[in-house]
Design goal:
The complex is a heterotrimer of chains A (170), B (814) and C (275). Chain A is an alpha+beta fold and 170 residues long. Chain A is built from 5 helices and 6 strands. Chain A folds into 2 domains: 76 residues, Roll (Ubiquitin-like (UB roll)); 71 residues, Orthogonal Bundle (DNA polymerase, domain 1). In chain A, 32% of the residues lie in helices and 16% in strands. A 5-stranded mixed beta sheet of chain A has the order 3-2-6-4-5, sandwiched between helices. In chain A, helix 2 crosses helix 5 and helix 4 crosses helix 5. The longest helix of chain A has 17 residues. The relative contact order of chain A is 0.14. Chain B has a 7-stranded mixed beta sheet with strand order 3-5-1-12-9-10-11. Chain B has a 5-stranded mixed beta sheet with strand order 7-15-14-13-8. A 4-stranded mixed beta sheet of chain B has the order 18-26-27-28, sandwiched between helices. By secondary structure, chain B is α+β, with helices and mostly antiparallel strands. Chains A and B meet through helix 2, helix 3, helix 4 and helix 5 of A and helix 1 and helix 19 of B. One FE2/S2 (inorganic) cluster (FES) binds next to loops of chain A.
Chain lengths: 170, 814, 275
């Protein structure tokens, strides 16, 4: 057991986009605030802090979760991925490129969270269609785009990926 | 899909190029308000907000809070009263509206105190330690009740909750009604709602005691009339309130206009602690207290003849502005005043406008600003007339449209509709949007016993507001006293640097629309360079940029005003560069072309010089410029359209520069089990004049449509009778998700505006006005009911059909 | 919206959990997925002195097929259960209901046991547990006890768990041949809490219907198999009996209407699956 006292800071270490980060956190600090305020990783945004808007979505051990509903101390020892880790060597990932092509963002405030959810879908799901994409996106609020272009961008990149990858049980 | 192929009017203009904004936003490198570094000694603020809708403030005991470790100060109404002045608004009234409540609170969520502490967590801890005694008063949340004599009065100095009551007559409505074959009327109530951008407000204020001024970073969106309001409240000259905006802003849709009282609040706090103070609004605060569109009760009656020709409107509008009249209100009510006749050619209007207060959140800008409320009344009425006269709703509308040959058309209340061909737009929509097919679908659905309805709506979308329209609320005499207000000055500066690259400063404060991309297209087009080579300053800084009160991102002013003025600035710069280049190439200026990064002779393209060389030349050799030429390093264009005159003596006002047109129709099905409304088919035909970047325009259409869906089906700020707020989280205030927003079919026509430099019109708000009423009309058709109130949540739809409920019968279940 | 101060304990053994619960006299809260707990903390609706993080408790991520039941440990997330290969066969009702539970991003972290412990009256998982007449395995320093679903949930956000007890696991009865399962829900938007949710078990003997969203906890009703028109009457009576809650989300009339019409649809669906 590890008991951390209120009001005191404790070491938190985790893998952030492939790099070990290590900073201190009070028990009550939200992962969203830890990422943004302590680590300066401001790509993930905060839009509601009660788990509805999805702007703060990051991947925790591969799964898309709300960083506003996660304590920083809970991430200790885990693997966290954020939007900052999507592009490799300055090259946008296929998903990011599709967003750009399809005009799937306007203000871009919701976008990082949405990208992280879609990245999970892209990695984990084999059967992706408009319905499943829309259902996934229902965990995000976007006030700018009306979602249609996001759906198209997602389906486009899934089509691309499945065209280049062999079927899983082939 | 487009009815008319995109007019490619240039190498870059008219093309859907990818956005220059996206690379940063997609990689998490956006720079939003809360992302920017702050000074190391910055403190953080949290607000204590009123739990009562209406109460006198007693003692505010802050001692326990102040004693907490990490707490630096607690700011209360006393401080506000001592160091700031009440905000001025669009109507002179003895209302004392401070950035923190003084003596009385008038809506749930009104700021009562501000804790300034080491971090936000501690600031929130301290809120719990402030003890306030309230003397609760009875509250009124219903605007129809608020103007009765029994209602509690919010501002005793005003003496009533009714702030303004004006009646306007255009033409001869009385005679028209006397002569008419039919009178059809409807009363509608438009709810309070808000566009709730996903990024909330952010303010960082820093007081400079040496200068006695403030440097504030805020994700403000304009209009800059409010800069004066803020400076006056702080009691400083405008040049002592430097207002900067972050490079990126997470949406606004008008809403972030309402950050301005918080700019003053943070400025006050920073002055008291002599350190920078930062506040990031949270979602609960935002829903509770940021901003909502006005609510409006409208009774509208039409005088109609047997042929379906509408002769006159009689309109009575009662506007709910919440607990304070906050600038620029009562603008919501007057924005559309000049075009109260909508898309129709009737000549006689009587309108009574009343502005009232209730114990609810103050109103302000929201996408559509006054349009959703007005068109909800007009277009519901049009459908009622069609039903009454047994006419096809489209036929009825077409019969009454302003005719193509009448443009520019002066509406009875003063709007000067610049261009359009409404009949043709509708005809194209009917064909390309498959109206006949929709009728068949309805027949079939009904034959199968399903509840299916069709609705339509026609909307004139005004853009680039006349800064003088708000003075229509004053009578001619009062207007004479305050002096004429008119126009809408836009300022754009294009700068050339020594290496000949181009930078632009614009006075719109983009919130995601892609202004930088569009401006890059305009500049690149004129100067013959590539859009990606143009740098557009992304943040705004009132201490550096040229700006006027009209600056900002509202009233869809970007395409007509900002893009147009950028075009003027670039064109002038090009002319001046031509004079330098003609010497160099030994070619007459008329023979010069700018393209592919070169300036060349149209007769002999090989005779060319790189653009960069000429563009940078004035920096390097200003002393050897040809005789009579000034150095060319910068061009600032200012533009205001002459059509934007002040209201005339008979209260006619042209409220906007350009007027687009929208015609929507849709088919909806009401589920008999769940009472959900399924939008089966939605068509929106849009005429926004010339399109700079069709993809950006479609983005605006989709976004406005989504807001329209929200308003139609889900969104409403709810209060109980005591004024307690019931929509305080995103689980209560329902914003549509990807599962609720269908893909509209978007069609276009293009009637270039004769009044704007590029022929463009604004287009950010249209479907926010058309979609709610279009859906309401379809639901009315599906259910065969007359009165429809938004939002059409399933329980309300169920109530519309509630006459068939089986009664309780005690046998049965065991 | 920042949480108040609290101590945090990261536990690696069950006994540590119950020790802490016993010591902290009701002021401690368990954190499993945190999808409700942290939201409540952010809104400062609760102010525990201690948060005990059980999300990585070893040996509790099991989904085990047992005699007649599927046992689910307290660290199993809703997504884990959704991805469990045996779901369709063993827990067809949950297979239908899980997509309605929040959103994927909350199911990825929210646990099955946590949802039961949270006892929201309009939540899907407590409704399913009640419909199936499942059980919760409670654990404290006093040992283990087992409560049936209807004993466990006693009111809105209220269970019969003692302050020092935790839900260690749940037992969902496995699908029985000859029983059809149906689930239906109406929410305003996809992923919202239910206005009304209905779970039905049907066989040639009769139907068992569970209704959520209408009162403090899932309401259960059993009827022998009856003719169509009697079914309508029975649903109508049930609607009048249950559907009287009026709140900011929905009128009582609408809830009654849903019990009748949605109930009818879900019963039909369940009957159609009777093998
Ligand atoms: S900020 Fe986390 S879901 Fe909205
Ligand atoms: S792009 Fe602005 S909220 Fe989605």
């Amino acid at each position: 057991m590890r008991r951390l006292n209120a009001g005191q800071r404790h070491l938190v270490q985790f893998d952030l986009n492939g790099k070990l980060v290590s900073e201190e956190s009070e028990p009550r600090l939200l992962l969203s605030d830890f990422l943004r305020g302590v680590l300066g990783s401001t790509g993930s945004h905060v839009g509601c802090e009660h788990g509805v808007c999805g702007a703060c979505t990051v991947r925790l051990n591969g799964r898309a979760v709300r960083s506003c509903l996660t304590l920083a101390v809970q991430a200790n020892g885990e693997r966290v991925e954020t939007v900052e880790g999507l592009a490799r060597d300055g090259v946008l990932s296929p998903l990011q490129q599709a967003f750009r092509r399809h005009h799937a963002l306007q203000c871009g405030f919701c976008t990082p969270g949405i990208l992280m959810s879609l990245a999970e879908l892209l990695d984990a799901d084999t059967d992706v269609n408009e319905k499943s994409v829309r259902e996934l996106l229902s965990g995000h609020l976007c006030r700018c785009t009306g979602y249609g272009n996001i759906v198209r961008a997602a389906l486009d990149v899934f089509a691309e990926v499945s065209a280049t990858e062999p079927a899983p049980d082939a | 899909m487009a009815s008319e192929s995109v007019t490619l009017w240039g190498r870059f203009l008219g093309r859907s190029i990818e956005r220059v904004e996206d690379a940063a936003l997609l990689t998490g490198r956006g720079r939003f308000g809360d992302d920017l570094p702050v000074r190391a000694d910055t403190l953080h603020a949290a607000f204590l907000r009123s739990p009562h809708a209406h109460a006198d403030l007693g003692v505010i005991d802050v001692s326990d809070a102040l004693a907490m470790k990490g707490v630096e100060a607690v700011v209360t109404g006393e401080d506000a009263k001592a160091h700031t002045k009440p905000f001025v608004a669009g109507l002179k009234q003895p209302i004392k509206h401070y950035c923190v409540a003084v003596e009385r609170v008038r809506y749930v969520g009104e700021p009562v105190a501000i804790v300034v502490a080491k971090d936000r967590y501690i600031a929130e801890d301290a809120l719990e330690k402030i003890h306030v005694t309230y003397q609760p008063l009875s509250a009124v949340v219903d605007v129809e009740k608020s103007i009765t004599s029994a209602a509690p009065v919010l501002h005793e100095a005003v003496g009533s909750n009714l702030l303004s009551d004006r009646t306007f007559i255009y033409g001869a409505p009385d005679e028209a009604f006397l002569d008419s074959d039919h009178r059809v009327n409807i009363t509608v109530r438009y709810p309070r709602n808000s566009c709730t951008p996903i990024e909330c407000f952010v303010v960082v204020a820093e007081y400079d005691p040496a200068k006695g001024g403030y440097d504030v970073l805020a994700n403000f969106q304009g209009p800059f009339t409010l800069h004066s309001v803020m400076a006056l409240a702080l009691g400083v000259p405008a040049n002592r309130l430097r207002l900067r905006t972050p490079p990126d802003s997470g949406g606004s849709f008008g809403v972030k206009q309402a950050v301005f009282p918080y700019v003053v609040a943070m400025a006050l706090a920073s002055r008291l602690v002599c350190r920078p103070v930062k506040w990031v609004e949270d979602r609960l605060e935002h829903l509770l207290a940021a901003n909502a569109a006005t609510g409006r009760v409208t009774r509208i009656e039409a005088a109609v003849n047997n042929e379906g020709e509408i002769i006159a409107f009689d309109i009575d509008q009662l506007e709910d502005c919440g607990a304070y009249l906050r600038a620029p209100e009562p603008a919501s009510l007057y924005r559309m005043h000049g075009n109260l006749s909508g898309a129709y050619k009737l000549r006689h209007i009587r309108v009574r406008n009343r502005v009232a207060l209730t114990n609810t959140v103050p109103s302000g800008l929201n996408r559509g600003f006054g349009g959703p409320q007005l068109y909800y009344a007009i277009e519901r009425l049009m459908d009622r007339i069609a039903v009454r006269l047994r006419m096809d709703p489209i036929e009825l509308r077409k019969r009454n449209f302003v005719l193509a040959e009448q443009f520019p058309y002066r509406c009875p209340a003063g709007a000067l509709l610049d261009s359009g061909d409404y009949q043709r737009s509708v005809d194209l929509a009917v064909t390309d949007g498959k109206w006949q097919e929709l009728l068949r679908r309805r027949n079939q659905a009904r034959a199968e016993g399903r509840l299916y309805g069709i609705g339509c709506a026609a909307v004139v979308e005004s853009s680039m507001s006349n800064m003088g329209y708000i003075t229509t609320v004053l009578d001619a005499e009062e207007r004479a006293r305050v002096g004429p207000k008119n126009g809408a000055l836009t300022i754009v500066t294009v700068t050339l640097d020594p290496l000949g690259s181009v930078s632009v400063v614009i006075d719109s404060l983009p919130q995601g629309q892609g202004h930088q991309t569009a401006i890059a297209q305009v500049i690149a087009e004129v100067l013959g360079i590539l859009p990606e080579e143009v740098a557009i300053e992304s943040g705004f800084d009132s201490g550096v940029a040229g700006w006027s009160i009209a600056a900002g991102n509202y009233s869809s002013r970007f395409a007509p005003a900002v893009a147009g003025t950028a075009y003027l600035a670039a064109s002038r710069l090009r002319d001046r560069l031509s004079r330098l280049a003609c010497q160099h190439l030994n070619v007459a200026t008329e023979k010069l072309e700018f393209a592919d990064g070169k300036i060349f002779s149209s007769d002999n393209p090989a005779n060319s010089v790189p653009f960069r060389r000429i563009a940078g030349s004035s920096h390097w050799s200003p002393g050897t410029l040809p005789e009579g030429l000034e150095p060319v390093v910068r061009e600032t264009a200012t533009w205001t359209p002459p059509q934007l005159e002040a209201p005339d003596a008979s209260d006619r006002i042209n409220g906007a520069t350009a007027y687009g047109f929208i015609f929507d129709f849709c088919g909806v099905e009401v589920d008999r089990v769940t009472h959900h409304i399924r939008i089966d088919h939605y068509v929106t035909m849009h005429d926004a004049g010339r399109r700079i970047n069709p993809a950006l325009l479609d983005g605006q259409i989709r976004g406005a449509f989504a807001h329209g869906i929200g308003a139609a089906l889900f969104e409403r700020f709810r209060y109980d009778d005591d004024g307690q707020f019931l929509s305080g989280t995103f689980a209560d205030y329902l914003v549509p998700t990807a599962c609720e927003v269908p893909d509209p079919i978007i069609l276009h026509t293009e009637s270039p505006s004769p009044f704007t430099p590029l022929g463009t019109k604004g287009a950010g708000e249209g479907q926010s006005m058309s979609t709610p009423v279009c859906i309401a009309n379809a639901v009315a058709d599906a259910l065969g009911v007359d009165d429809i109130e938004l939002p059409l949540t399933p329980d309300r739809v169920a109530a519309l059909m509630s006459d068939d409920e089986p009664s309780f019968r005690s046998a049965g279940a065991k | 919206m920042k949480p108040p101060v609290f101590d945090y304990a990261f536990v690696e053994h069950l006994d540590e959990v119950v020790e802490l619960l016993a010591a902290d006299g009701g002021e401690a809260r368990l954190l499993a997925g945190g999808q409700s707990l942290i939201a409540m903390l952010n809104m400062r609706l609760i102010q525990p002195t201690l948060v005990v993080d059980i999300s990585r408790l070893p040996d509790h991520d099991f989904i085990t097929l047992k005699e007649g039941v599927v046992e689910i440990g307290c660290t199993v997330t809703q997504s884990d259960l959704q991805l469990w290969p045996g779901l369709a066969e063993s827990l067809p009702l949950l297979k239908r209901a899980l997509p309605w539970v929040g959103h994927r991003q909350t199911r990825n972290k929210g646990t099955v046991c946590g949802s039961i412990a949270h006892a929201d009256p309009s939540a899907e998982l407590p409704l399913c547990l009640a419909a199936l007449n499942g059980e919760a395995v409670l654990y404290s320093s006093r040992g283990e006890r087992v409560l049936a679903a209807h004993e466990l949930q006693v009111g809105t956000l209220e269970t019969a768990c003692e302050p020092d007890e935790m839900i260690r696991a749940l037992r969902f009865p496995r699908a029985v041949p000859g029983v059809g399962y149906g689930f239906g829900e109406v929410a305003y938007r996809h992923g919202d809490f239910a206005i009304v949710a209905i779970a039905v078990l049907a066989s040639t003997e009769g139907v068992r219907i569970a209704v959520g969203g209408v009162s403090e906890k899932p309401e259960i009703c059993e009827w022998p198999l009856m003719e169509d028109r009697f079914l309508n009457d029975a649903l109508n009576d049930l609607a009048w009996k249950l559907g009287t809650t009026e709140d900011q989300h929905a009128t009582a009339y609408y809830r009654r209407s849903l019990i009748r019409k949605l109930g009818r649809r879900v019963v039909g669906e369940a009957l159609a699956c009777v093998g």
